[in-house]
UniProtKB/TrEMBL annotation:
InterPro entries: Bact_solute-bd_prot1, SBP. It comes from the Bacteria. GO terms for cellular component: cell envelope. This is ABC transporter substrate-binding protein. Belongs to the bacterial solute-binding protein 1 family. Gene3D superfamilies: Periplasmic binding protein-like II (3.40.190.10). The keyword Metal-binding does not apply.
Amino acid sequence: MKKVLVFLFIVLLMTVALPKVTITLWHAMSGSRLPAVEAIVNGFNATHPDIEVVAQFTGSYAETLTKAIAAYRANDQPHIVQVYEVGLQTMLDSGAIVPVYELAGPDFDWGDVIGPILEYYSVNGKLYSMPFNSSTAILYYNKDIFKAAGLDPNKPPTTFSELYEYGRKIVESGAAPGGISFGWPAWVFEQMHAYHAQFYANNENGRKAKATEVYFNKDFGIDVMAEWMKWAQDKVLVYGGREYSANQAFLSSQVAMLIQSTSSVGSIESKANFNVGTTFLPRIEGYPRGNSVIGGATLWVMKGHTQKEYEAIWEFLQYVMKTEVTMQWHKSTGYFPATNSAVKALLDEGWFVEHPNHLTAFLQILSGTRVPEAQGVRLGNFVAIRDVVDSAIEEALQYTGTNYKKEAKRILDNAAKKANTILEEYTMIYGK
């Protein structure tokens, strides 16, 4: 009888489901990117019955960052939070995170992470957040409008001068009302500095020590802004908002070209009723060659959880980095495949041959010059500084005079003064 009871007890234990470890993930992926996030989470949950990842959309990048820090202070933080690249210094100084390298086992191959992504989020050679949706900026163009304007659709502009010339022809021919628009204009301004090997701030963009002064009001920044002001006056450049709103102007053929994140490749290709081309960012003649810089976001692990939860978190982060998972994420969105293994697999299956627009950003960032100026900018309260720069760009593009450089210098000097005050206040709190 005892044996029967013991057997029944064991069977009962086996049939009672063990409690799952629940992991919360806060993210900022909406629109066409939301189903791609859900596919990753659902795939993980299906293969890990003892863990449940609960993904929650928490607003824009800036809102998600702010909410996560506030939640930590209230002891109500998520396990994982997606933070965009401008939040890097804030997260490092927050006291709220566990670096991902501390969670990893000795066998995890960090060398498989794409070089520029690894460098951007590493401190003293150690990775602090897990790569997820990394991007950079590229030039999109409407091949049909190019043809209508008498331009070769297979020869997009490579320099600022060519872009201005093409834009004038497009507008004057009536092929489109405008030549070009930008997504994330302040980010494009940052990209231009990295792309031309120009520091955006002192202390090597805040990577050797905390930045205390911005450099975007120096000669290079003035040259870029003055060009944009000229373009805007001649209807070559059409202001398109601070984030993704410019995509609609491009998709509706109001402009022939768009500088935007590679993360928009998938949605633009699926929605466009014209032939979409992509190419590298245009260059200003006379400046050295740098590299485009990483954008997008990574996954940060928050403090204040149990060892069992951290083990579950690491399981999920490893899953995100699996070759087949990062391949599908790239295909669904256009964000970089985060590992060399995924790139090889995509090449082997012929994905890039069939989808060359997905390859453009990747070739651009790997063919640039690996210099400190293009490794990435770390600024205290970078979110507020980017807002200052966006406001400066908006003011500049409304200018109706002809002395572009003088006005560009005035506007950028004012913006730099505000940005330096933000940096000063930040270092008073967190130190240099």
